[in-house]
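Quick one from the shared queue. A colleague (R.T.) flagged Ribonuclease P protein component as missing a structural entry in our internal table.

Convert sequence to structure tokens.
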Amino acid sequence: MFSVKFVLMKYTLGKQERLKSKKLIEKLYKEGSSVKAFPLRMVFLQTEHTSDYPAQIGVSVAKRNFKKAPDRNRLKRLMRESYRLQKEIVYNNLDVPYVFMISYLGKEEKDYEEIYAKMNKLLNLFIKQIQNIPNEEHDS
């Protein structure tokens, strides 16, 4: 269904790929599953959304951990950038639409290289988790 996009996939993170719907975000936190690669946590949910892309993403940084807006904004920018450059990990493994929110859990600001590495680990954990969902009983 989404395979045409991957041949000419752009490394952008446009409006259509961003999670903005309050209803979807609410549903995501109520019904979603999560994976962690500290200091990042992804809450994800397989659901229909309005975008043509296989996934919509949002990022968040807690105000209680980073009081100053420029610090929060910088971390969100780093998270979006590291996702943008690695999103083919997700796109090449999805055949149904997903929405997810990536939150920064740490109390100290990490540098870009560390966030990039943790994002890679997080995206791979996500793929492993969604591929194992039907076989969970057989893995034990």
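The radius of gyration is 15 Å.
Residues 1-7, 135-140 have pLDDT under 50 and may be disordered.
Added to the table.
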